[in-house]
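Much of what follows relies on a compact textual record of a protein's fold. A complete example follows; check for yourself that the lines match position by position.
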Amino acid sequence: MEFKGAGVTVYVNDDVVKIWLSSRQISFSTHEAFGVLIASTSEDRKEYWIESVTVPKPEDSSTRCSFILKDISHQLTVDKAFSDSEGQLIYLGTWHTHPQEKPVPSDIDKVDWKNCIKDNLDRRLFFVIVGTERVHIYTKGIFGFKALMPI
């Protein structure tokens, strides 16, 4: 998958796409799935490659319309990817599912994203919402969050 907007291009590894599609909330009993994005970037920071993602872990919790990412293994996975890649793979945001065909961020999502950005001022972050029909990627724009367009 490839997305463009806000002056950047984001490429998504096929294995990541498979995880997202298999995590869609198609059934009414399915809870939100979620995790962090592990990615690399070009030197000019205009191209990004989402190489892998984490998935819900035992210490995390979720409901149909909410999640709490609290298992330490997400951070440990990012740390290992960073170390193994000699700093090329880094934390680049989060992903989660919504039980909507065309997912839109909730107010809670936007507050969480703003907090993630405050904790990572050295890089641009991306936030993925996987709907039942579409995947949307958002990043901070001049006037709030901007959706990147699938190519």
User: Anything to note?
Assistant: The radius of gyration is 14 Å.
